[in-house]
User: Fold this.
Amino acid sequence: MVDLVVEERVKYPPFEPNRWEPQALPLAVQRSVIGTYESKDEAMNELKQRAPMFTLGGEDTWMVEHRYFIGDELVESISESSWVDQRPYPNVVKRQRRGWYLLPNPFHNIVRKFINSVVILLLIALAYLAISPILIMFNIPVYGIRTVRLGLLDYPVLATFVVPLIFLPLMIRVFANLIELKRQNTFLQRNLKDPIITFQQTSVTDQPLAIEIEFPEWDDEWNHVDVFWRVGVLPPSREALLKTLNRKANAQPPPGLSTELPHHWEEGLDDGTAGGEDAPMEIQEVKGGLYLRPMRIMASGGTQRWKKGETVSLDPPNPIWPGTFKSELIRVHWECILRIDRQRGGALFWVQPLNVAHHSHQTSLEHLPLYDGRSESDLR
Assistant:
């Protein structure tokens, strides 16, 4: 008698993955017994009916892996066929990756870069003030160190130039968020009808995607529509991750996870992989928000401009990715996106989740394309 075991291993990148060291974060491993069989051949036959194996990344970097064991022996390869995951979509897809979305105001991205420059300028100014007595000792001319009285305190003249630069980005962000709220209200009042998307065949990871698109309602301010599809890995369930790493929900979280944040809408939308503003201010009446967060591991397939009455054919991503996979720990997600270019108000997006079948070969990707998780950095 032999046990057939499925193993999932995940080291998912936190918010802003470029700031983290993958080697320093724990690898979550979850094993479960599928069943017990009389022989290895019988167990191998059972594998033909299950999801194919795939490995994304490696042990020294970010990693997402799904594999099987027969007893203590790792299954090297199996005779695989196309397999479709029929399980329901996780809550994060239902709420945050389906329907209409707006493109954030470019002010957010510009101001974020400006803040970095201001911080560097502030540190330089503080270092200059700190060494100014030494410069004076060596008769080196210094500027901006004389004081100016503001209220009851004296401040260096240099501070009167640097400090306003620190508050300027904050005021711009407040102004940009007010604009975002107005744009969201205007779009919701529009009550735009959903496009009709027809898939001509079952979607497979290594085959082109053929679709037909109709717009029941066309706006005169729309210039054109670009269609593309993409695949990525969504964050694992926080609850499953804590359980796998043997951590309690109310205890100190493992490295890479922040303490649990209040759920603004409902549970399952906050993965808790670090604190950071992933989207501008959003109207809370819309469950999940109106800004699409990029998947932190993500690759795009072909792009084609839509023309009325013509079929859109999109090439698959290269290299080939695994198909849709939905578990608490591993969530390989596919979606089709319509990017509508408008004369004003920024681009508009329609997002359609896809249930894509695995291709007939085992998938192994060494290099994973990473994104920081901010909606303002996606879909430009």
